[in-house]
Amino acid sequence: MSLAMVMLACGLITFAIRLSFIAMEGRYRPPGWFVPLLPFVPIAALTALVAPDLLLVKGHLSLGAGNPRFWAGLIAIVVAAWRGNILLTIGCGFAALWLLRLAV
Amino acid sequence: MTKSELGRGAAFLLGVRALLPMHLGVVPFGIIYGVVAMQSGIPPLAAVLMSSIVFAGSAQFLLAQLVGAGAPGLLMIGAVGLVNLRHVLYSASVAPMLRGLPRRWKVLLAYLLTDEAYAAAIPHLMSGAAHGHWILFGAGFALWAGWQAATIVGVALGAHLPADLSFDFALPLTFIAIVVPLLVDRRRIAVAVLAATLAVLLEAWPYKLGLFFAALGALVLAAMLTPRSEP
């Protein structure tokens, strides 16, 4: 199979996945238990996306001094809960990460 | 000005602005993709086109590596499908908010529906902002433009990787800033804790499937914790 064919097929499959529910909306009625779960999707999906970045170092759980991303992430969580400001959260998270790198 | 008075142009710019901080993480990632694609022997034009045809960061990385390893075509297509499976959740999440839009809008927004654009737009969509589709379009377009530019830089650099200042950390930090304000009750906190725990436990699963099933598992918990009477 040529590279062009593989790329086109990969593009189509990715697009089809992203379009799936958007295209079905209105034509098909999702089951009753499913709709109340939609507000939880951002929390479930984005937390699952971030957690391994913060908690794992080379595939192993690491919550000590060897994992500055965990501590910087914790500080970012506290700042986000306290202020809810995105730029402040990013700034404090980076400041914490770089300071911890210097200190450890 | 209240959110309901927001015009289309302002909604578009709101989406662009919500996405901009993520470029700190996305641009280096795109540059590294370009470099990896060159090292895998993908022709420069194909490497650049892949960023608009496939338009999915982790999947493009995997694809570049598989091309370099000489993997069979069907395996590459299947792998990309599995890595991007998590986007079905974003599709389900935004579908009710895009109800009634013309088909060309649905097609455009589906094409632009990445982790980053979804994260940037979803708090605004959930709060019922006017012209929500323009906010999602702004976020999606901003990510698309940054990703294309970064890919071209990476392809042009070829073998020279930029210095590592950990800018990729901008992505988890932005996602934290988006998710934490959504954790307004114990149920939502429990869902986040379970999603994080499962994602860590299932991290070794191939094709990012652990991520997808961690999110699904957390949604099952949300279902168990949600009283049937609540809409």
Walk me through what this model shows.
- The complex is a heterodimer of chains A (104) and B (231).
- Chain A has helices at residues 3-24, 41-55, 68-83, 86-103, and strands at residues 56-57, 60-61.
- By secondary structure, chain A is mainly alpha-helical.
- Chain A folds into two domains: 1-30; 36-103, no CATH class.
- In chain A, strands 1-2 form a two-stranded antiparallel sheet.
- The N and C termini of chain A lie far apart (50 Å).
- In chain B, helix 2 (23-39) runs parallel beside helix 4 (57-68), helix 3 (44-53) runs antiparallel to helix 9 and helix 8 (115-126) packs antiparallel against helix 9.
- By secondary structure, chain B is mainly alpha-helical.
- Chain B has two domains: 7-160, no CATH class; 183-226.
- Chain B has helices spanning 8-19, 23-39, 44-53, 57-68, 73-83, 87-94, 103-111, 115-126, 132-157, 170-179, 186-201, 209-225.
- Chain B contains twelve helices and no strands.
- Classes of the chains: A mainly alpha (104), B mainly alpha (231).
- Chains A and B meet through helix 1, helix 2, helix 3 and helix 4 of A and helix 3, helix 4, helix 5, helix 6 and helix 7 of B.
Keywords:
heterodimer, A: 104 residues, mainly alpha, 2 domains, two-stranded antiparallel ribbon, B: 231 residues, 12 helices, 69% helix, 0% strand
